[in-house]
Specification:
about 325 residues, mainly alpha, 2 domains, two-stranded antiparallel sheet, 14 helices, about 0% strand, rod-shaped, disordered C terminus
Length: about 325
């Protein structure tokens, strides 16, 4: 008959995977189980029964392995984690509304190009396609121009603040939070540009730098986020009668990625792709095709909505076997 402790330790070693000190952890637990089995034997149990009792007191290999991986920040994709859902919801709503505001701004900007898109002589559209800035030719355009600026100001601000609320509420290290706030600073810089330009032609080339940096900062922020071991993630004892909201680590990463893509929609890379697609759709070979900006804004709405949809999926069923908390009396 195989030894229950040996079988347990082999299963635990598989659960620990590539944790650097996995062998030391197994050795420590082996010592703990040996002491527990000896205590059970002193109470009159035979050696096999004593070993089985010691193993049962510690918890299953899956539970202990998950607890150790949690403390080491070595999450597996299917691991359930307890995480507050409100920061995701707030960020998603703000990003969706921000994307809609940016779409409104782009629509109002290109409104004079309706004649061009209808195959007519677009005299009011040509300056927009040529310069990429608003050039009010008649007094009536001033109201439209003001609305363009205000919608863009609202959109950029909501994108930046929504991502900031999300980043600051995550159980990340301080360094990760700082990196994650860089996209917020850049989107708020774009919003400031819109604020300063109200009543004047749209922001010129000097706003290109924040857009370029935003396209670089968003992947960097996401990279830091997925490498962060979530050291601030609090674990509570599993209770079958009171379960905190849970998600899986895989779903958590998907939502972080989708939110990062949503705010990245305001960056230069997204804008260039947007311009290329619009050029093909409208047949405009000018510097900036009509409708540029609409796809970027729609992308922000799409990615934030996708994150919202992922979050609305049913949470994994939590049982004693897949509890996302630290079980047992031993902590490592």
């Amino acid at each position: 008959m195989s030894d229950p402790i040996d079988d347990y330790l082999k299963s635990l070693r598989r659960e620990l995977g590539t944790i650097p000190d996995a062998d030391d952890i197994v050795a420590e637990i082996d010592d703990h189980l040996g002491q527990a089995a000896a205590e059970e034997a002193r109470r009159g149990l035979d050696p096999v029964a004593a070993s089985e009792a010691a193993v049962m007191r510690l918890g299953t290999p899956a539970q202990v392995g998950r607890a150790v991986r949690t403390q080491r920040g070595r999450w597996r994709s299917g691991d359930p984690i307890v995480l507050a859902g409100w920061p995701f919801l707030v960020a998603e709503i703000m990003l969706i509304v921000g994307g809609l505001a940016l779409a409104t701004s782009a629509y109002l900007f290109w409104l004079p190009c309706g004649e061009f898109l209808a195959g007519q002589d677009g005299l009011r559209c040509y300056p927009l396609m040529d310069a990429g800035v608003a050039l009010p030719a008649i007094p009536q355009d001033q109201i439209r121009l003001l609305a363009v600026h205000l919608a863009a100001l609202i959109g950029q601000s909501l994108l930046g603040l929504g991502w900031a609320i999300f980043a600051l509420s995550q159980p990340w290290r301080i360094s990760t939070r700082i990196i994650a706030l860089v996209p917020t600073a850049l989107t708020l810089a774009l919003a400031t540009a819109e604020l300063l330009a109200i009543g004047e032609p749209l922001v010129g080339d000097w706003a290109d730098l924040p857009m370029v940096l935003l396209s670089l900062a968003c992947p960097l922020a996401f990279g830091y986020a997925i490498e962060d071991p979530l050291p601030g993630l609090r674990a509570g004892r599993f209770s079958p009668t009171h379960l905190a909201p849970t998600t899986t680590y895989r779903r958590y990463l998907w939502r972080v990625a989708l939110l990062a893509l949503a705010i990245n929609s305001a960056g230069t890379f997204s804008y260039l792709l947007d311009s290329a697609v619009m050029g093909g759709l409208t047949g405009a070979d000018w510097d900036t095709p009509p409708g540029t900006g609409l796809i970027s804004a729609a992308s922000a709405v799409l990615f934030a909505s996708a994150s919202l949809a992922v979050g609305r999926r049913r949470n994994p069923k939590v049982t004693g076997e897949n509890s996302p908390v630290t079980l047992g009396a031993v902590r490592y």
